[in-house]
Design a protein that fits this description.
Number of helices of chain B: 9
Helix content of chain A: over 70%
Oligomer: heterodimer
Strand content of chain A: under 5%
Radius of gyration of chain B: 19 Å
CATH superfamily of the domain at 1-63 and 159-238 in chain B: P-loop containing nucleotide triphosphate hydrolases
Mean pLDDT of chain B: 90
Low-confidence stretches of chain B: none
CATH superfamily of chain A: ABC transporter involved in vitamin B12 uptake, BtuC
Shape of chain A: globular
Largest interface: A-B, 31 and 51 residues
Number of domains of chain A: 1
CATH topology of the domain at 1-63 and 159-238 in chain B: Rossmann fold
CATH architecture of the domain at 1-63 and 159-238 in chain B: 3-Layer(aba) Sandwich
Shape of chain B: globular
């Protein structure tokens, strides 16, 4: 017995941390490098390192492509992927619902109505469509919170129902808006709804910096979140302010997801798939899942976006198609394996 | 100094008084049990003590200090709660769960230290779940899971431990194990044990003193021998029971009297 205790002296969270993060960081870096060097005009890995290390400016076009087009795009994909996965993780936990995704509290509906109105009004993507989309999701979120009595800890089901209803109502508005729109705008709208990273440009990337403080808040609150998940009463008895923590997490996460969505459209599946995938591997501790979701979600969307840019012969396809096409089978496979 | 003093605590939901001017004290290291029929307010009373709900009137002193003077964290360092059922839809491992008990003692970021882990290990050995340390909660039986939740409460190093029907839905062997565990814990750590239970015989066998509730009001407080008299038991539960001296020791034993034996059996 004594022996066994000594052999287990390493604390579980510290035991898992190094393995988890070495793997995920390597995957993250590799995905980014792969996404940077691949595209319609190919840049070899050698070229890439010579730009990077020697400041070699012999190939100005390639360099412009790399720094002005691909890098901002890769950053956007990584940030959106990370945000959606982390958001999905929080909502699945707070609402205790495995089907919860980051858009569930009316965010998808509200942001879509905002964005589509922007597109129909013909305003520029940034700041016009982006701003309207963010405004839309904040309005629906406010309505959902108000409907559920403003409290996040007592009315999980009313929160969930409020979100679903709000999304359904917005769905009707979206149908209406599409029905009155014409040709070229129609395609823009459809692409937005499917989730498309090609609309955004590097000038609006700084907006994503606002997601960083949200990441920090969520990572810091991961421990009380763990305790809340083992029972509301026990959590209060353990000194956790359940109501306050749930509300902060809910609002922070919704803000963060809205910030991502207003630049990327409705990219599906990332926020559902990645948290589940990591739970299957690493268990339920959100102190590990949080950083894990950021790295894995970032990598996944960077790679999906790479496929969206390179697969079609002409132009691009919306990245949302790729996330669903790859994500759903992957998820079904994992589910099938875990059930055996 | 008493571990716990309740004076005239009342709680009502609308017009329905679930706890009605309840007063009692529990000494340091006492095994104190709360009994009463369904809806008597047992769990509500426990929640008042744990700080989950606030009484509308009355005062609670913990270790001689009014409860309002404690921050939620400070309160969590002296009072631990083992709730009726732990949800298992987020399957933490046993050791992860037990380590959460250290939470009130850690800072905001609080990654547990080797000392915290040693305490968790000790608590797991004490309740006999150390061999499951890396298993997930949903892979354990009800009795094992209950012992994990008790280990977590022990790991919290409380002065008072509150348990809400911990033996509910467990087989007799597991009931015995959990009750013996709490008795040993109380003796070794001088921790006060406050337990809500439905099991009259377990209460008679283990409690130092017990409180009988009915409709939120105290029927009687006393030792098992003082409480287990037909007058109080029948008044509280509203059914006849046979009370005699238990063959295992100087404690009462309660037997239910089914309808079919009522004609042939004479009290």
């Amino acid at each position: 017995m004594q022996n066994r205790i000594e052999s287990r002296q390493i604390i579980p969270i510290k035991r898992k941390f190094p393995v988890l993060f070495s793997v995920l960081i390597v995957v993250f870096i590799l995905s980014i490098l792969t996404a940077l060097v691949n595209g319609p005009s190919s840049i070899s890995l050698g070229d890439f390192f010579s730009f990077f290390l020697d400041g070699d400016s012999t190939n100005a076009t390639a360099q412009t492509i790399l720094w002005k087009i691909r890098l901002p795009r890769v950053i956007l994909a990584a940030a959106v992927g990370a945000t959606l996965s982390l958001g999905g993780m929080v909502f699945q936990a707070l609402l205790r619902n495995p089907l919860a995704e980051p858009y569930i509290l009316g965010i998808s509906g509200g942001s879509a109505v905002g964005a589509i109105s922007g597109i129909l009004l013909g305003v520029s993507f940034f700041p016009g469509v982006t701003f309207l989309s963010f405004l839309g999701s904040m309005l629906t979120l406010g309505a959902v919170l108000l409907l559920s009595g403003g409290s996040s800890s007592t009315g999980k089901d009313s929160l969930l129902l409020g979100g679903v209803m709000m999304n359904a109502f917005c769905g009707a508005l979206i149908m209406f808006l599409i029905s009155v729109s014409q040709g070229s705008k129609m395609q823009q709208i459809i692409y937005w709804l499917m989730g498309d990273l090609s609309m955004s440009s590097s000038s609006n990337l700084p907006l994503l910096l606002l997601c960083l403080p949200c990441f920090v808040v969520i990572l810091v609150l991961a421990r009380p979140l763990n305790i809340i998940l083992t029972g509301r009463d026990s959590a209060i008895a353990m000194g956790v302010n359940v109501r306050l923590i749930s509300t902060i997490l809910l609002v922070t996460t919704s803000m963060m997801v809205s910030l991502a969505v207003c630049q990327s459209g409705l990219i599906g599946f990332v926020g559902l798939l990645i948290p589940h995938l990591l739970r299957m591997v690493f268990g339920a501790d959100h102190r590990l899942l949080g950083p894990g979701c950021i790295l894995a979600g970032g990598s996944f969307l960077v790679l999906c976006d790479l496929l969206a840019r390179t697969l079609p012969q002409h132009g691009e396809m919306p990245v949302g198609i790729i996330t669903a096409l790859t994500g759903a089978p992957l998820f079904i496979f994992l589910l099938w394996r875990s059930r055996r | 100094m008493n571990a716990l003093d309740l004076r005239n605590n009342s709680l009502a939901y609308g017009n329905n008084k679930v706890v009605d001017s309840v007063s009692f004290s529990a000494g340091s290291g006492e095994f104190f049990m709360i009994l009463g029929p369904n809806g008597a307010g047992k769990s509500s009373l426990l929640k008042l003590i744990a700080g989950i709900i606030k009484p509308q009137s009355g005062q609670i002193d913990i270790l001689g200090k009014p409860k309002e003077k404690y921050s939620t964290r400070d309160l969590a360092r002296v009072v631990a709660l083992v709730a009726q059922q732990a949800p298992i839809d987020f399957p933490f491992t046993v050791v992860e769960t037990v380590l959460m008990g250290r939470s009130p003692h850690l800072g905001l970021l609080g990654i547990e230290s080797v000392k915290d882990y040693a305490l968790a290990e000790e608590a797991m050995s004490f309740t006999g779940v150390a061999q499951f340390a890396d298993r997930r909660l949903d892979q354990l039986s009800g009795g094992e899971r209950q012992r994990v939740m008790i280990a977590r409460a022990i790991c919290q190093e409380p002065r008072i431990i509150l348990l809400d029907e911990p033996t509910n839905a467990l087989d007799p062997a597991h009931q015995l194990k959990i009750m013996d565990l709490m008795e040993r814990f109380r003796q070794e750590k001088k921790t006060t044990v406050i337990m809500v239970s439905h099991d009259l015989n377990l209460a008679a066998l283990y409690s130092d003193r017990l409180l009988l509730l009915k409709n939120g009001r105290v029927v009687v407080i006393g030792t098992p021998k003082e409480v287990f008299v037909p007058e109080f038991i029948e008044k509280s539960y509203g059914c006849e029971m046979l009370i005699e001296k238990s063959p295992v020791g100087d404690v009462p034993r309660v037997t239910l009297v089914p309808e079919k034996f009522k004609n042939t059996f004479k009290f």
